[in-house]
Design brief:
Elements: E1 2-6, H1 11-27, E2 32-37, E3 53-56, H2 63-67, E4 75-78, H3 83-91, E5 96-102, H4 106-115, E6 118-122, H5 126-131, H6 140-150, H7 166-170, E7 180-184, H8 195-206, E8 212-216, H9 224-229, E9 233-236, H10 240-249, E10 252-256, H11 259-266, E11 271-275, H12 280-286, E12 294-298, H13 305-324
Parallel strand pairs: 1-2, 1-4, 2-3, 4-5, 5-6, 7-8, 7-10, 8-9, 10-11, 11-12
Amino acid sequence: MKILLSRTDRIGDLILSTPAIATVRASFPQAHVTMVTSPYNRVVMERNPDVDELVDLPREVKPAAFGTGFRGYDIAVALAPRTQDLQLVGATRAPVRAGYTYVRRWLARLTLPLYVNRSTISPADPELCDREPSRLVKHEVDQLLDLVALAGAHARVPELRLEVNDADRARLAGVPESPVVLHLGMRWFTTGSTVESTLELATQLRNLGVPLVLSCAQECVAYAKVFRDAGHLVLDRLAFYTWAALFERARCVVTVDTGATHVASAVRRPTVVAFEHRYFRLNSQEWAPYRVPSVLVRKPETEDAAALAQFRAEVVRGVTELIDA
């Protein structure tokens, strides 16, 4: 049996797909499993033992044309609700082709049968979740486990997977043991938060009496100097698995809603996540930390001093709750 899996979007979403990928492997242990990624997110799968072959979708190649290269496969699953993954899977003409889209993506729902013959519709919708407080949305991991079950993969493996090794850990020699790790992503510096407020948050976290280490997303490297000048230990330009090893070393991870949330879950670390004020109800259900102790905080709607002070206090309370547990 030959199985094709495709996910070409974000790193965090691919991490959330690793239980579905492991479920496919456990359900079809003798199959040849090929995983299609993008050049950007492939790092998540480079050490993953649940796939036999890892292939990048070239940026210059149309997904439908690329998918024809996998004719003869028995099962193909689009793990992302994106047109390019659906087109790629559809072009394989595999007897079993599975995929999904969202409830109010009307055009995508109409075209879904063109690509797949087994499908599901996610109830996730930011505006519906805000208007209907009773609307519950499954975590993305569980939605993906349901999706691969449509393709016949029923041996559910719910754990996230990232293969951190001793070489990754050795690169952190000299970093304090069991720190609080504050991950600097751009959402700390945009609507509902500011550089100055985040700098004050770092100071308050350091005052808890636990070592504090800051990691820095590539797009935030320009902010690193501000925090270093304030005396904080900032690690930037870390290789992906060294970054994961830093989180693994942490007593608690603090982050905004980004892929860092899912890296922390994959290495089983307690996590405080600051979600955006808008669409908090959906995002805090579908993309919350998975199967780890967590505290979810809503960023303020405004950036006045009182709102930012309350926001910082909620984050610090969350960290205190998790490190004292």
